[in-house]
Every structure is written in structure tokens, then in C-alpha cells.
């Protein structure tokens, strides 16, 4: 059976991991000092997260820079959607879920913390789940529309910073329907004032958290 997740070892070089950790820690500090970042703490999927940030200019630029490397492991053309920083708090993880259109191909990159096993599963296949453990600087790429994914009951033992470099197979979802990369979530087409700390952000509970192009697109 084809691997559901594409594990890219050493996706980022150690110097780049170090730069990004310094950059994110400094961003956190600036946010706290200046109190200008309203998305300093948890989001709808991970309420206890210590830091989250959607569409950070530098991290969106990282997505643009590394898109060719993500494309190497993917069999369909990919477009950049958005980037996301999340620092998990020790003792937390991510519930199993599926993602919306526009967030269909996820490249998750580990920057800090101990190994944190990740599950990809699909209910209608005979092998219900695959487990991946990625090291610092490694990436895992998967289709988050197709596969239910997350950490399940497993929690991280220490705080852990992960980057999500989100791509899409749908050209009309490019930049997550923002005018261009680097812009905040409220610039998404039709989503003015949308609060992505809402627990339903990006998900549709009526069909197992998968928002398809055929359903009422009220949550994306
Ligand atoms: Fe997800």
C-alpha cells in the first residue's frame, strides 16, 4: 500500500531550524511586550497552545521558498495556501480530525520538542492507521482532506513548536483566498471578521470535519 504520509528527513537544515526557533521565540516576546498580537494563545483546534500565528510574513515566505521541495514528493501540482505556527503546550496534543479544502495538503515541520507520534488514518481501508514520528527539521506531508490525522490520545511531554506549511491542489484556493501571502486571516475572501479561534474553524462537524467543495462552505 502506498504510504499515506511522505516523510522528508532533514527538510530544514539545522541552521534554518535554529533561525526559525529564534524568530518564533522573539515573535512571542514582541507580542507579549507590545500586546499587539491578538492570536498569541490557543486556537480552536488546540485551545491550550502556547503560541499560534496564521500567515506570518516570514513563515509565508518560507512556504513560498520550500514549495518546490514539498512538490517533489507530491504527484499533483501544488499551490501555496498559508502557513501556521503552533507551539503545543506540554501535556497536550491534537485531536483526530480532517481539514478543509484550501488546507488540503499539509506539510508539518517539527522545530522543537521530543518525538511526538502522528497518526494518519482512513476508516474505509483495511489498515486503519499509520504512525509517523519525525525528528527536528523533518517534515511530514499528507492529504488532510483524505486522511483523518492528529495525535489522538498521545500528548507531548514537553512544549513543542511545529510549523504547518499548507498547500492546496486547487488553484482557486491559492493563498487561502487572500490577495497574496503574508496577510492575516480576516483578509480571506468572504471571511472578514472571521475568528479562527472558533472551534469550528476550518472544519465541518456534519461530515466528520471534512469540508468538501460540495457542502455548504460556511466554516472555511
Ligand atoms: Fe489538520
Structural summary, described in words:
The protein has 220 residues and is of the alpha+beta class. It has one domain: Sandwich (Jelly Rolls). The protein contains two helices and nine strands. It has helices at 14-34, 57-71, and strands at 6-8, 51-54, 79-88, 105-110, 118-121, 129-132, 139-143, 148-150, 160-168. The protein has a six-stranded antiparallel beta sheet with strand order 1-7-4-9-3-2, covered by helices on one side. A three-stranded antiparallel beta sheet has the order 6-5-8, with no helix packed on it. Strand 5 (118-121) and strand 6 form a beta hairpin. The protein is globular and about 50 Å long. Mean pLDDT is 83; it is low at 202-220. Residues 97, 99, 144, 149 line the site of fe (ii) ion.
Q: What is the gist of this entry?
A:
The chain has 220 residues and is of the alpha+beta class.
Strand order of the largest sheet: 1-7-4-9-3-2
CATH homologous superfamily assignment: Alpha-ketoglutarate-dependent dioxygenase AlkB-like
| Strand tally | 9
Q: Total domains, how many?
A: 1
Largest sheet report = 6 strands, antiparallel
How widely separated are the two ends?
32 Å
Could you list the spans in which at least 5 consecutive residues all have pLDDT below 50? Answer: 202-220
CATH level-two architecture: Sandwich
Supply Rg.
Answer: 16 Å
What name is given to the CATH topology? Jelly Rolls
Shape descriptor: globular
Mean pLDDT: 83
Q: Helicity range of the residues?
A: 10-25%
Q: Give the strand content.
A: 15-25%
The number of helical runs is 2
Amino acid at each position: 500500500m502506498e504510504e499515506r504520509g511522505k516523510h522528508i528527513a532533514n527538510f530544514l537544515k539545522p541552521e534554518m531550524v535554529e533561525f526559525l526557533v529564534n524568530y518564533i521565540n522573539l515573535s512571542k516576546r514582541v507580542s507579549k511586550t507590545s500586546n499587539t498580537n491578538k492570536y498569541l494563545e490557543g486556537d480552536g483546534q488546540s485551545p491550550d497552545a502556547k503560541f499560534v500565528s496564521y500567515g506570518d510574513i516570514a513563515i509565508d515566505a518560507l512556504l513560498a521558498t520550500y514549495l518546490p521541495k514539498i512538490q517533489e514528493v507530491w504527484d499533483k501540482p501544488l499551490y501555496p495556501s498559508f502557513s501556521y505556527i503552533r507551539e503545543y503546550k506540554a501535556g497536550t496534543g491534537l485531536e483526530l480530525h480532517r481539514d478543509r479544502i484550501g488546507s488540503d495538503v499539509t506539510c508539518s515541520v517539527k522545530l522543537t520538542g521530543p518525538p511526538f507520534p502522528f497518526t494518519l488514518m482512513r476508516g474505509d481501508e483495511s489498515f486503519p492507521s499509520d504512525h509517523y514520528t519525525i525528528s527536528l527539521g523533518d517534515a511530514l506531508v499528507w492529504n488532510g482532506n483524505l486522511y483523518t490525522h492528529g495525535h489522538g490520545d498521545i500528548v507531548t511531554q514537553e512544549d513543542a513548536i511545529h510549523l504547518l506549511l499548507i498547500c492546496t491542489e486547487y488553484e482557486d484556493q491559492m493563498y487561502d483566498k487572500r490577495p497574496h501571502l503574508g496577510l492575516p486571516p480576516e483578509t480571506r475572501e468572504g471571511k472578514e471578521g472571521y475568528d479562527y479561534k472558533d472551534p469550528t474553524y476550518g472544519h465541518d462537524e456534519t461530515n466528520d470535519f471534512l469540508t468538501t467543495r460540495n457542502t455548504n462552505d460556511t466554516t472555511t
